[in-house]
Amino acid sequence: MIADDAERIEGGPENWRGFNVNGGKNPEHPASFLLKGKTSGLLFVNGTLYASVNLQDGTWPDVTHVLAWSTNKGATWTKADWTFRRGAGRFQPAKFLNFGKDYSGLPNNLTGYVYIYGQRQPESGRNGKILYMQRVPISQFPDGTEYETFQALDANDKPTSGFEDTNGVRVAGVVYNPGIKRFLLTCYHTGPGQLGIFESLYPRGPWKTIAYYENWGGMGTEGEGLSCEFPQKWISVDGLTLWSIFSAYGDGAKKGIKAHDRFNLVRVKLESSKH
After folding, report:
1. Could you tell me the CA-to-CA distances from 231 to 60, 101, 107 in Å, in that order?
2. What gap in Å lies between CA 17 and CA 159, rounded to an integer?
3. Which of 126, 235, 256, 259: CA 20 to 30 A from 248?
4. Alpha carbons 217 and 256: distance in angstroms, whole number
């Protein structure tokens, strides 16, 4: 969903269909979403659909972010009257931690909150190397109050500022996999073939590496890896078969599996480690 176009996907990963709900070609409802901006994250909580939107009001990463929501499944939208302000060191929301349908299936110790992942705007360059997590009570989520940055743990259970990859951190997707009772984090470190997949018992970490690629899909380093996520709806009951939705851009993404600037799906099979 970008700018004034909101879409719905129906069906499973092998027979899905897309529908323009708000704006776009032959929409179910006239455009009422933001006229400019790109959506980075979506979340459905207590009957309300939320979107985290980059307003594209500057040169990335010096941009403002805003929260928008719909109480009628995307037919009409409301924009918050507050923003995540731009500026070096400020938190830039990207993805929400996703659970089951309508935010169901949370472990007991996590209920009552929404969890958001993003970076702090770097002093220079396009991307930082640390991913931060914020949480906010569901009741305060649309108001812009009570947001707090959670401290993460490293592999030695020592406090750290967040998930860190010295090779770089782009937009990361995080989902709870109830079949294996693990949180899965997917994140490109730079180009379309440079993808990392990580797991943890907790949404704040510590994170362990499942796989780390430099030439995934034969796409290499030229261009950008944009987004890679595992929708919980398409995770098997045992948690071992998943479908990834991913996007990539640039010359590298035109090579190998040719994922450039399109909606991409790939099936993933997990195996338990014996170590």
Report:
1. 27, 10, 18
2. 44
3. 235
4. 6
Q: Tell me how far apart the alpha carbons of residues 41 and 50 are, in angstroms, rounded to a whole number.
A: 8
Task: Give pLDDT tens digits for 23-39.
Answer: 888 889 988 887 788 99
Shortest CA distance to 40 belongs to which of 106, 138, 110, 117?
117
Question: What confidence score (pLDDT) does residue 3 get?
Answer: 45
CB-based burial of residue 59 (10 Å sphere; 0-12 exposed, 13-18 middle, 19+ buried)?
exposed
Beta bridge partners of 38: 2, 54
By C-alpha distance, which of 85, 47, 82, 58 is closest to 68? 82
Q: Which residue has the higher pLDDT, 1 or 198?
A: 198
Q: Kindly tell me the burial class for residue 249, based on how many C-beta atoms sit within 10 Å of its own C-beta (0-12, 13-18, 19 or more).
A: middle
Q: Which two tokens stand for residue 211?
A: 């796989």
Q: Which amino acid is at 97?
A: L
Q: What is the pTM of this model?
A: 0.92
| Per-residue model confidence as pLDDT tens digits over 178-196 | 999 999 999 999 999 999 9
Instruction: Give the whole-angstrom CA distance, residue 26 versus residue 210.
Output: 42
Higher pLDDT, 149 or 47: 47
Residue position matching structure tokens 């959506």: 39
